[in-house]
Write a structure and sequence with these properties.
The chain has 270 residues and is mostly beta strands. It is built from 1 helix and 15 strands. The chain starts with 18 loop residues before the first helix and ends with a strand.
């Protein structure tokens, strides 16, 4: 669902990019007061040139999160996919498909200059659209596939820098609908990030992630003999504006993805 997990104040990204940088903006390098609760609303949009014939692929993720005592959190995200244009006459000029909603639970603990977090993720399966519908032609938004994930992360605050590392494992469960049952029992990700607070309202972040994907199974039969490896790098800029914030990013190598997002947080008055 890539997806993303949208808990701004946890500041440790087990599954999604950018959360560490956003937290550093709330208070200088994580030294702010411990809040009894916080509620956040988030919207993220990504753009990628799908191909000359198939047009532009856009993804969006709308979500909300609730954080208690700056430690325990729950978040819910709703992803969407949209394809625009394209020269292939067999594909519709405009296609829209919802992805699978994502539910996550988080826990974080601060120990001196260190912060540790544990996060669990559940991707809820939605029925796949009929193959002949405009929503289901030409691309797959993940409908019909449930997923599980578990991640650990740690961060070291070195004003004005934050160094973080993360490790997560994921499982794509067999689909409940469709002609073929597809699953990927195991995949993993290792991540490193560096965030620098430029001012009281801006920070930049660099993330490097190494992905490991196990074989995909169709009807119980493996489609490959070994594991697949891929490297991903992300550069992000975060800007705080009152109660909310803006973020802009670029991800590569491979198909370049440009992203933008906005957040609004609601907290009790000090």
């Amino acid at each position: 669902m890539t997806r993303r997990i949208l808990l701004l104040s946890l500041g440790l990204a087990c599954f999604g990019p950018g959360l560490l940088g956003e937290t550093s903006l709330h208070e200088r390098v994580g030294k702010g007061p411990q809040l009894p609760w916080e509620f956040s609303l988030d919207l993220d949009v990504g753009l990628r040139a799908f191909s000359e014939t198939e047009g532009l692929l856009a993804t969006a993720d709308l979500g909300g999160g609730f954080l208690v005592d700056s430690r325990f959190g729950i978040a819910l995200g709703f992803p969407f996919m949209l394809r625009l244009g394209g020269a292939d006459p067999r594909l519709p000029r405009l296609a829209f498909a919802p992805g699978n909603p994502g539910l996550s639970f988080s826990w974080a603990e601060r120990r001196g200059p260190w912060r540790y977090s544990l996060q669990g993720e559940l991707g809820l399966a939605l029925p796949s659209p009929p193959p002949k519908s405009s929503a289901g032609r030409g691309f797959d938004a993940g409908g019909g596939q449930a997923a599980l994930g578990l991640g650990l992360a740690s961060a070291r605050y070195l004003d004005p820098l934050v160094l973080a590392s993360s490790m997560s494992v994921h499982s794509l469960l067999p689909s409940a609908a469709g002609k073929s049952r597809i699953s990927r029992p195991l995949s993993a990700r290792l991540g490193l990030s560096l965030t620098e607070v430029l001012s009281g309202r801006a920070s930049i972040s660099l993330n490097v992630d190494q992905d490991f994907e196990g074989p995909t199974f169709i009807e119980g039969k493996p489609q490959s003999k070994g594991w697949r490896y891929s490297l991903e790098m992300r550069f992000s800029l975060f800007i705080v504006m009152g109660r909310g914030g803006l973020r802009f990013g670029f991800k590569g190598p491979g198909p370049a993805i440009f992203s933008a997002g906005a957040s609004m947080a609601f907290r009790p008055k000090p």
